[in-house]
Each structure stands twice: as structure tokens, then as C-alpha cells.
Design a protein that fits this description.
It is a single chain. By secondary structure, this protein is of the alpha+beta class. The chain is 45% helix and 22% strand. The strands form 3 sheets. It has a 6-stranded antiparallel sheet, with helices on both faces. The longest helix has 31 residues.
């Protein structure tokens, strides 16, 4: 019997050895950069490609951590924090991560998943790394080093800024200039509070960061900075967004450097001119979705902005003629073709013509566009070129409607703020904070949860409608509304009526003429006290029976009530507010909203500092 057991054991050992041999062969052969870390974040398994890209011999990083391998301890700390989060939440991540390769900043697309055993415990992390050349990302935004070298040279203080959290990772230090901060601190606040920037520049620095937060692609500022010896120098701070359309991440590369020119005023003027050029280009491409520059001497064209339909970005003018035959309505086609074939030697520099033409968007369906034709002198001054712009006329109508909605919203906000202040319900600032927090949280949800089908236009309307959430309180008696102590059961029942009474007020408000805005106002007013577990009022809705906007207004209303001083309580500090919400002391909320609320914690804090 023992001989049989020994034989089985020997066979099993041989099987395991063979499996291990095959596994090692796969590691050597597979052309993928992947790794496995243990619970202490030490590398235990690496592929051949992983070792090669790290510049070590085979197995050279086994047993090491990112702190042993990375040139920047801040980058290593960000990897470690991400690993700890994955193991704590038992949920994978995908992130764009900066890595210093010599003096060059490269971004890697890193997938990581927890390794979970049969008992549900995390044993480690499996990672997959995709090199920048393999990623579908705009080279303008990812080849950071080329941009920075072109503007600032190699001597600069460079940092990777997370727009959502406000945290930063130092990528490159400037000789003679040190700026110390913790990995969890808001870099904007550290910079503003630093003694190395003059007071007169600090407000402008804050505005820079806000521009980037609000979607601008670049912000530049000339300012005075102090070196480690206490000497002041003219300098320049530049923030440039780095986008990844797949991950929808928002990061920016920041560069602080001394001005190279002795004449700082001249350098400032150069920066100003370059900034104005970029802004003008941005304005042009925002106003005109498509701009064609047609060189009739060379019989070539190039497209700036988004091509119309299936138009190629650039090519021979004959391609435009073929495009006209296929996509421009036959009654409007002659305008376009005649312009292309007109005499280029005529002197019409500065002349402008405006047309309305129909472009095919699908078989049998056309859309009206406004076409502006400009005759301009060619670069050699001997002939005439054409600039042709296209503007979606449906877009004009949409923008006009959007502006009307916003005007209506602003009017209602002013009326509501006056009513609230006159009755001293809380304060007019409460209304503006609810609007701001609703917008911040909805933006976070839009990025993380596409299932809610949010977009920027919806969020703008929803956040304005959120200001109407407590309009019904003007119908509640003062002795209940302003009572400093706890309400009785009877008084609370009366207070609960403010949701229904608010809807009646909205129904009677003839100024609300926009159907979508009215819909959100009514829904928020009626349902912002519903609870995710079904224990709210007035309808006892549960889960996603409650609209996402009413769920958001509910949680931000609770947040503001806790963190602000009220007639019946003192203000709580931020930590206690989050503890109470996370511990369920203020009701049950959608877990997706809770996670997004945590992510935008820094942005919410800023609303109370302004």
C-alpha cells in the first residue's frame, strides 16, 4: 500500500515539475509586460519583457518593491497607495501612470487586478502594462517632454497634477528650488501658501488651477519665484492637460521655471502673444466646427477642427469636388464648386460671403449649415486662397435655447435666494452651495457611471433645478420652520409637506417655460427626501426608482446641513460629516454616490473656503 502511495506521490511531483517548467517557458516566451506582487507589494513573478524594460537581468526585481525601482519616491508612493486600495476593496484598477525614463517622462497604461483565493482572501496583485507606443492616445498630449522642452528647456520644476484630487507627483526638480509637500496634500494649496511665491501672484495661481479644472487645455502665468537662497527671479508657471479618451482621466502636467531672458517684460510679452494665439485658435474651432484652408495655387486643402461628414482631413482639391457631388444638396452644390474653380488671380483679399447649404448626414436626410467664404492673399502674395468655415445651424438653435434656459434659471435662483434670505431659512449661500455640489457630484457620476446617461447640458440644467429643492418651505409656519429644538411627531408631519407644497408652487410658476427644466425642478422638489432603502417620503421610493438627480440633491443637502451652522445645531467638521454619512447615521444612500462623494471631497471643501 505504501509503495502505491509513494508511486502516486512521485507521479504528482513529476506533474507539478512539468507544469512549473511549462509555466517558466511561457514567462520567457510571452511578449507581454506583466507582473505579480504579493501582499507586501513585492514583485514575485515577472515576465521577460517586464525585466527587460526595467533594465535588469532575468528575475532581477523579484523580492523588490516600487520604492527600490522607481527614480521618484512620489511615483513609487502612488503605486503603493493604488496597490493597497486594490487589496482593500478587492477591486481592480486601470490608470495612466507617469514614469521617469532617464530625463524623459513617459506614461504607461497599467491594469491591475487582485488575486483572490478560494476563501475570498487577497493573496496579491496581477498587473499588465501597456507601453505608450501601443496606446491609442493623442501624441500631442502624451509626448510631454517634447512640449516642455520646446517651451521651457530642460531646467524646470515639473509635476504631475491630479485634477480630481488636487494631489501631485514631482517628476523633475529645479536646481536651487525646493518645494516640500505631502503626497495627500492639495498641491494648489501648498503652492498658494508657499513663501516662495509673492502674495500678488497667489490669486492668479488659484485662477490658473480653476481654469484647468473647468476644462481649459492650458494656462500660463508669469510670476516671481524665490530660490533656496532667498533671491527672487521672474518665472513662468504652465499647466497643460494630459487627456486619455479611453480612461476619461483628468490630469495636468505643471512646469515652473525661471525665465531665460534678461528682459522679463519681453519674455512676458512673448508668452502673452503665444497664449493669445492659442486662445484665438480655440475660439475659432469652438465657433466654427470645421475650417477649410484651400491653397488654389497648390490645389491642396487642409481641415482644421472636425471634418464635415466623411470629408478627409487634407488632400487634393479634386477630393473636395467629389465630396460636394456626394454630400452637398444639388441645389446648393454650385456655390461650393464655383468657389473652388474661381479665378485665383483676382484681387478679392478680405472679401466675405455668407451662404446656407444643406449637407447629407445620412441617406435621404440633410442638415442645414452656415458656410462662410473668405478670400485671403496667399503666402507668396501672388495669388488668392480661400478659407471656408462650416457652422451647424441646428447648433445655433440649440445654443440659443440653452441660453434662454439659463436666463430663466438665473432669474429663478435670484427670486428663490431673496425668498430664502427674507425668511432666514438657512442662507442664500446654502442655495448656491447646493447648486455647486450637485454639479460637482453629477460630473463625477457622468465619468464613472455611463448607465445614468448624463451629459454636460443635462448637468447644467439639473444643477440649476436643484436650487428649487426646498422652495416648499416658504409654506411652512415659522414656529415649525425656525424651531431651534427637535420637532414633535405632529410638527415633523407638517414639515414633510414642504415637498408636495413645493411642487404646487412650481406648477403655478409660469416663468418655468422649459419642459426639461420644469421636469427636473418638480422631481427634485418632490423626491429629494426619498431614501435608497425605501424609508423616505413622500412616495416611499426605493433604489433607482429615485432619479439620479434627486439622489444627488438628497446627499448634498445632508452634507451641507451637517457641515453648516443651523438654528438647531452647530457646524460639524468635515471628518465627522463624512463619518456620519459613511456610517449610515443620516440614512442610506446609493453606494455609487458614496464612492463619488469621497472622490470629490477636495472639490467640495473648496466651496466652503470661497
Amino acid at each position: 500500500m505504501n509503495d502505491i502511495k509513494d508511486k502516486c506521490m512521485e507521479d504528482r511531483i513529476k506533474e507539478l515539475e512539468e507544469e512549473n517548467r511549462m509555466f517558466r517557458m511561457v514567462l520567457e516566451a510571452i511578449p507581454i509586460n506583466f507582473f505579480v506582487k504579493d501582499k507586501d507589494c513585492r514583485y514575485q513573478i515577472t515576465s521577460r519583457i517586464c525585466d527587460m524594460l526595467n533594465g535588469v537581468e532575468r528575475g532581477g526585481i523579484i523580492g523588490k518593491t516600487d520604492f527600490d525601482l522607481q527614480n521618484s519616491k512620489e511615483i513609487a508612493q502612488s503605486f503603493y497607495d493604488d496597490d493597497q486600495r486594490i487589496m482593500a476593496l478587492k477591486k481592480g484598477s486601470r490608470m495612466m501612470s507617469p514614469t521617469l525614463c532617464g530625463d524623459t517622462v513617459k506614461y504607461y497604461d497599467i491594469y491591475k487586478e487582485p488575486l483572490i483565493n478560494e476563501n475570498g482572501n487577497v493573496e496579491g496583485i496581477l498587473g499588465l502594462v501597456i507601453a505608450p507606443a501601443e496606446m491609442d492616445i493623442d501624441k500631442k498630449n502624451t509626448e510631454v517632454e517634447e512640449q516642455l522642452e520646446a517651451y521651457f528647456g530642460s531646467q524646470c520644476f515639473m509635476f504631475d497634477y491630479d485634477i480630481k484630487t488636487g494631489n501631485a507627483i514631482i517628476l523633475k526638480k529645479l536646481e536651487g528650488f525646493d518645494l516640500e509637500f505631502g503626497s495627500n496634500e492639495s498641491f494648489e494649496e501648498v503652492l498658494i501658501n508657499s513663501t516662495k511665491i509673492k502674495e500678488r501672484s497667489k490669486q492668479a495661481v488659484s485662477k490658473m488651477f480653476k481654469k484647468i479644472e473647468n476644462g481649459e487645455t492650458e494656462a500660463v502665468l508669469v510670476l516671481d519665484i524665490m530660490d533656496n537662497q532667498g533671491n527672487w527671479h521672474p518665472g513662468v508657471l504652465n499647466l497643460t492637460r494630459v487627456r486619455n479618451s479611453k480612461l476619461n482621466q483628468n490630469r495636468a502636467i505643471g512646469v515652473l521655471s525661471y525665465l531665460s531672458s534678461v528682459d522679463a517684460k519681453q519674455e512676458e510679452m512673448i508668452i502673452t502673444i503665444n497664449t493669445m494665439r492659442r486662445r484665438m485658435y480655440q475660439i475659432m474651432t469652438e465657433k466654427f466646427k470645421t475650417i477649410l484652408y484651400i491653397s488654389r495655387k497648390n490645389k491642396m486643402y487642409t481641415c482644421i477642427g472636425k471634418p464635415v461628414g466623411l470629408m478627409a482631413n487634407q488632400g487634393n482639391v479634386e477630393l473636395l469636388e467629389e465630396y460636394a457631388k456626394e454630400f452637398i444638396h444639388e441645389d446648393d452644390r454650385r456655390i461650393f464648386v464655383d468657389a473652388l474653380k474661381s479665378n485665383s488671380e483676382l484681387s478679392r483679399d478680405g472679401q466675405h460671403k455668407l451662404y446656407e447649404i444643406r449637407l447629407k448626414v445620412e441617406p435621404g436626410k440633410y442638415r442645414w449649415y452656415e458656410a462662410n467664404l473668405y478670400y485671403v492673399e496667399s503666402i507668396d502674395g501672388l495669388s488668392e486662397d480661400i478659407i471656408l468655415t462650416f457652422y451647424d445651424m441646428d447648433e445655433i438653435i440649440r445654443l440659443k435655447r440653452q441660453q434662454e434656459v439659463r436666463n430663466t434659471n438665473n432669474h429663478l435662483i435670484e427670486v428663490l435666494s431673496s425668498v430664502v434670505e427674507s425668511r432666514d431659512l438657512e442662507s442664500g449661500n446654502h442655495i448656491q452651495r447646493i447648486k455647486g455640489m450637485t454639479k460637482i457630484l453629477l460630473n463625477a457620476i457622468m465619468e464613472k457611471h455611463p448607465e445614468y446617461e448624463l451629459n454636460e447640458e443635462k448637468i447644467e440644467i439639473m444643477s440649476s433645478a436643484a436650487t428649487m429643492h426646498d422652495i416648499g418651505k416658504i409654506a411652512i409656519p415659522d414656529n415649525i420652520l425656525l424651531k431651534p429644538g427637535r420637532l414633535t411627531a405632529e410638527e415633523f408631519e407638517i414639515m414633510k409637506e414642504h415637498t408636495i407644497r413645493g411642487c404646487k408652487i412650481i406648477n403655478s410658476a409660469s416663468v418655468i417655460q422649459d419642459e426639461e427644466y420644469y421636469k427636473y425642478c418638480y422631481d427634485i422638489c418632490l423626491h429629494h427626501h426619498e431614501r435608497y432603502d425605501g424609508k423616505g417620503y413622500p412616495d416611499g421610493l426605493k433604489g433607482d426608482e429615485i432619479s439620479i438627480v434627486s439622489q444627488v440633491v438628497s446627499i448634498v443637502d445632508v452634507y451641507d446641513a451637517l457641515i453648516s451652522k443651523r438654528c438647531y445645531k452647530e457646524a460639524y467638521d468635515e471628518k465627522k460629516v463624512f463619518d456620519m454619512i459613511l456610517n449610515g447615521e443620516c440614512g442610506v444612500f446609493n453606494p455609487k454616490l458614496i464612492n463619488c462623494l469621497i472622490e470629490v471631497r477636495t472639490e467640495l471643501r473648496k466651496l466652503y473656503l470661497e
